[in-house]
Amino acid sequence: MAIDAGASAIGLVSEMPSGPGPIPESLIAEIATTVPPAISSFLLTCKEDAASIIDQQRRLRVNTIQICDRLPHGSHRELRDALPGVSLVQVVHVTGPEAVDEAIAIAPHVDAVLLDSGNQSLAIKELGGTGRTHDWSLSRRIREAIDVPLFLAGGLKPANVAAAIREVQPFGIDVCSGLRSEGRLDPEKLRNFFTQMNTD
Fold first, then answer.
1. Are strands 172-173 and 112-116 parallel, antiparallel or unpaired?
2. What is the domain range of residue 160?
3. How many domains does the chain have?
């Protein structure tokens, strides 16, 4: 349904400490084998060590890893060496101006940066799917400061996606909770989102 609506990537959410959308790894593997070659299959992972992420990718066979938490220094190099041809997208949660420095520091080690509205410092980490926006002026500062593509996430929905694109001018956008009704992808919200996204 998402691909038919115009999506160029599909996010497959593995186990997370909170938020909507996790599905069993067996289903992630099944879906990943059916995604057309022109569409990116993103594995959203909360694992915090390279060995676990490498093992997860080898089981699930996605072509992009969306790293939703921080990794120890050197982990991205380990991932690159072990998973040639697999794209790495690092999530930076924009809780304040410190996110600018975090994004600048990580950008040289990944293929893209994705800005979201989670909070890693909570007792139960929020690593996505919060339904909250963050300060888009910080997102734009990050986009202007890094040399890799930037994806924008966090509280996007049909009513605000055009404004977000105008403000930040990201390479791409990522949406989860803003297109759901009763826990499922809503076809009407999906169509409306793409209509609004493509509005000048």
1. unpaired
2. 2-197
3. 1
What whole-number distance in Å separates Cα of residue 25 and Cα of residue 13?
9
Output the pTM of the full model: 0.93
Count the residues in the chain: 200
pLDDT in tens, 37-72: 899 999 999 999 999 999 999 999 999 999 999 999
CATH number at residue 169: 3.20.20.70
Residue bearing tokens 């990050």: 142
Distance from first CA to last CA of the chain, Å, rounded?
A: 24
H, E, C per residue of the chain: CHHHHCCCEEEEECCCCCCCCCCCHHHHHHHHCCCCCCCEEEEEECCCCHHHHHHHHHHHCCCEEEECCCCCCCHHHHHHHHCCCCEEEEEEECCCCHHHHHHHHHHHHCCEEEEECCECCCCCCECCCCCCCCCHHHHHHHHHHCCCCEEECCCCCCCCHHHHHHHHCCCEECCCHHHEECCEECHHHHHHHHHHHCCC
Q: What is the pLDDT of residues 7-21, one digit of tens each?
A: 999 999 999 988 878
- Report the alpha-carbon distance of residue 178 to residue 162 in Å, rounded: 14
